[in-house]
UniProtKB/TrEMBL annotation:
<feature type="active site" description="Schiff-base intermediate with DXP">
    <location>
        <position position="107"/>
    </location>
</feature>
<comment type="subunit">
    <text>Homotetramer. Forms heterodimers with either ThiH or ThiS.</text>
</comment>
<dbReference type="Pfam" id="PF05690">
    <property type="entry name" value="ThiG"/>
</dbReference>
<dbReference type="GO" id="GO:1990107">
    <property type="term" value="F:thiazole synthase activity"/>
</dbReference>
<dbReference type="InterPro" id="IPR013785">
    <property type="entry name" value="Aldolase_TIM"/>
</dbReference>
<comment type="pathway">
    <text>Cofactor biosynthesis; thiamine diphosphate biosynthesis.</text>
</comment>
<protein>
    <recommendedName>
        <fullName>Thiazole synthase</fullName>
        <ecNumber>2.8.1.10</ecNumber>
    </recommendedName>
</protein>
<keyword id="KW-0704">Schiff base</keyword>
<feature type="domain" description="Thiazole synthase ThiG">
    <location>
        <begin position="16"/>
        <end position="259"/>
    </location>
</feature>
<feature type="binding site">
    <location>
        <begin position="216"/>
        <end position="217"/>
    </location>
    <ligand>
        <name>1-deoxy-D-xylulose 5-phosphate</name>
    </ligand>
</feature>
<feature type="binding site">
    <location>
        <position position="168"/>
    </location>
    <ligand>
        <name>1-deoxy-D-xylulose 5-phosphate</name>
    </ligand>
</feature>
<dbReference type="InterPro" id="IPR033983">
    <property type="entry name" value="Thiazole_synthase_ThiG"/>
</dbReference>
<comment type="similarity">
    <text>Belongs to the ThiG family.</text>
</comment>
<comment type="function">
    <text>Catalyzes the rearrangement of 1-deoxy-D-xylulose 5-phosphate (DXP) to produce the thiazole phosphate moiety of thiamine. Sulfur is provided by the thiocarboxylate moiety of the carrier protein ThiS. In vitro, sulfur can be provided by H(2)S.</text>
</comment>
<keyword id="KW-0963">Cytoplasm</keyword>
<dbReference type="InterPro" id="IPR008867">
    <property type="entry name" value="ThiG"/>
</dbReference>
<keyword id="KW-0808">Transferase</keyword>
Length: 266
């Protein structure tokens, strides 16, 4: 296979996390959606196959809940432990989610404080180790720290999910260098999670080597959520293609794109 064919095949390759494969590399969070109809439109437009929901925001038994939207859209549910501040709370929430939704997949969030909503690295690692031991497929939301990402992978997490920027800020990838380092060193999928503001942020995350992007606010609070969801779908796809295509090295000085050789002396 030549290089061209290899890059094309890689672009079309599915995203594999633990024992599941996904065609889409965009994961959608549901927080902030104005109503269920808008959320359904955004999910469909995004092309996502995986949607996260906070256990504390759902009553699994109630009809007309967000779960109905997810079912109608034909996408998979990834419960998360949003709102947990300690490993103990997160482990308890994950176990409740496993019972309620019949899945051992969990997006692990253990938050350090209410102002920054940044992950608490000590509690996060503790919770991840406990949940992996208990048979969960753990996808931890983490800071953009390459050492912590490695420790989470070593603990047996199925993916690592470093933040682009704090949740809901829309600031985009704040530390591209760290994000690239995490991607270079990881042997599990790296999913850029939180802080994406617009399509170019999602494209950059993929260009840096991420396997997928998870975002919520940029879509749910956009003026036109479905249109932004479609833009994110295209951005993730374009960013991945650009990564695989191999970007040109950046140069300090100009470099003529057409050669000066053979030009007539005027
Ligand atoms: C960790 C967390 O809560 C994020 O996954 C959030 O759901 C998405 O963050 P944004 O709303 O910034 O995209």
């Amino acid at each position: 296979m030549d290089q061209h064919t290899t890059a094309h095949t890689a672009r079309d390759a599915d995203l594999k996390i633990a024992d599941k494969t996904f065609t889409s590399r965009l994961i959608l969070g549901t927080g902030g959606a104005a109503n269920h109809a808008q959320l359904a439109e955004a999910i469909t437009a995004s092309g996502t196959e995986l949607v996260t929901v906070a256990l504390r925001r759902v009553d699994p038994g109630a009809s007309g809940s967000i779960l109905d939207v997810i079912e109608r859209c034909g996408v998979e549910l990834l419960p998360n432990t949003a709102g947990c501040f300690t490993a103990e709370q997160a482990v308890r929430t994950a176990k409740l989610a496993r019972e309620a939704f019949g899945t051992n997949w969990i997006k692990l969030e253990v938050i350090g404080d209410e102002d920054t909503l940044l992950p608490d690295p000590v509690e996060l690692l503790d919770a991840a180790e406990t949940l992996v031991r208990d048979g969960f497929t753990v996808l931890p939301y983490t800071s953009d720290d390459p050492v912590l990402a490695r420790r989470l992978e070593d603990a047996g997490c199925a993916a690592v999910m470093p933040l682009a920027a704090p949740i809901g800020t829309g600031l985009g990838v704040r530390n591209p260098h760290n994000m690239a380092l995490i991607c270079e060193n990881a042997n599990v999928p790296v999913i850029c999670d939180a802080g994406i503001g617009t399509a170019s942020d999602a494209a950059l995350a993929m260009e840096l080597g991420c396997s997928a992007v998870l975002l919520a606010t940029a879509v749910t609070r956009a003026a036109d959520p479905a249109l932004m969801a479609a833009a994110m779908r295209d951005a993730v796809s374009a960013g991945r293609a650009a990564r695989l295509a191999g970007r040109i090295p950046k140069r300090h000085l100009a470099n003529a794109s057409s050669s000066f050789d053979g030009m007539a002396d005027l």
